[in-house]
Amino acid sequence: RGGPTSSTTPARRWSQHYTVVALCFAAIFISYLDRTNISVASIAMKEQFGWTETTKGLVLSSFFIGYLLLQVVSGLLANKYGGRVVLGVAVIAWSLFTVLTPPAALWSLGTLIAARIALGLGEAAVFPGTVNMIGRWVPAQGRTRAMAFATSGISMGTLIALPLTAYLVRSYGWPMPFYLFGALGLLWAILWFVFVGEGRGVEDAKPLAGRAVPWRTIMRTPAVWAIIVNHFCHNWTLYVLLAWLPSYFKATFGVSLASAGLLSAAPWLVSFVMSIVIGFVADAMLARGYGATFVRKLLQVIGSVGAAAFMLLLHTAPSAAVAAAVMCGVTGMLAFCFAGFAVNSFDIAPRYADVIWGISNTFATIPGIIGVYVTGWLVDRTGGYAAPFLVTAGLAFTGGLVYLAIGSGEKKID
Fold it and tell me: Is residue 1 pLDDT above 50, yes or no?
């Protein structure tokens, strides 16, 4: 366990490979339980504490301040020390702050915001750590589906968090999901350090020891900026839906809290299934000789433009059921992007994939601060969700055009 490929039997190597990917999926799953539960719990918290929609938007967006600050640092730490330690320590840290969220909220709004920022600081390492571990353990020909499966934890975490949080809030009060989900993260950490060893399962012909990160080359590469722009646009859509979907269903169609959670969960089931399917489709296309540039651009453009089209239809939905169906279209299209920009850093700079993810996710966290807050502001000013959904659609469409113009699947940085 933890030795290099040359000293590990194939059966053992593949066993470790699956264990690593499964636990990375679980880490992302738990991270989305912990960051998403407040989108439902905040409905009850708003009533108890007398928040406005703008105040609620501030609480929801504060997580992303901490999340943004440590993205690049997390990528560098994972690149230097490996994802095992970085990801393991991060899950322990953010789980503790999840547990501390209810007492922080009861103390004051300021301490709640501080706890959410601290949660974001911990979760900043989840994707750089995952990217590093996939690069260390998964052969190149399987990385798209491995990354797609791991990142499908976003969808599954959201799928479970929304209805489960609604049930827990209704049955036990809004603090319960924070206590339960935080404890789950601490259990994960035990499994991670017991079953995942040091080392790697894929040989690295040129070890990184002593090598400086080529910052200038990275930041001057157009293909890197294609990833950055699309990560930003993708996450604007993702974070707006994560934070505001339950409130949208409740405010627009007058459904109950439990129904809002269930309706909001349905699109993420579609996203989960589509993420896995598209990962296999992308790797199959690559195996059949299609160029990586063609595959990445095709799937990314379908995802971005398709999501934009469905977002434009959303404000015309006549019922909650139709709105849920349209939302399934949005999230189903977004899943294509997990085989587009999300895995693209392995194509253009395999040795620095974790660093590039940290850079792109720094930019892509800005929508969590601005987009989530601005959505609340626009809802307060306009009395509805048509305006923020129009802005979201425009950004998704723009991302697709940028990727079509400058995206690449060729290796750019050695």
Answer: no
Which whole number is the average pLDDT over 196-219?
A: 71
Reported as a single tens digit per residue, the pLDDT across 313-369 is 988 888 988 998 999 999 999 999 999 999 999 999 998 998 999 999 999 988 877
For 252-303, what is each residue's pLDDT tens digit?
A: 887 776 676 677 778 888 999 999 999 999 999 999 999 999 999 999 999 9
Q: Which of 64, 19, 59, 30 is nearest to 43 (CA)?
A: 59
SS (H, E, C) the chain: CCCCHHHCCHHHHHHHHHHHHHHHHHHHHHHHHHHHHHHHHHHHHHHHHCCCHHHHHHHHHHHHHHHHHCHHHHHHHHHHHCHHHHHHHHHHHHHHHHHCHHHHHHHCHHHHHHHHHHHHHHHCCHHHHHHHHHHHHCCHHHHHHHHHHHHCHHHHHHHHHHHHHHHHHHHHCCCHHHHHHHHHHHHHHHHHHHHCCCCCCCCCCCCCCCCCCCHHHHHCCHHHHHHHHHHHHHHHHHHHHHHHHHHHHHHHHCCCHHHHHHHHHHHHHHHHHHHHHHHHHHHHHHHCCCCHHHHHHHHHHHHHHHHHHHHHHHCCCCCHHHHHHHHHHHHHHHHHHHHCHHHHHHHHCHHHHHHHHHHHHHHHHHHHHHHHHHHHHHHHHHCCCHHHHHHHHHHHHHHHHHHHHHCCCCCCCC
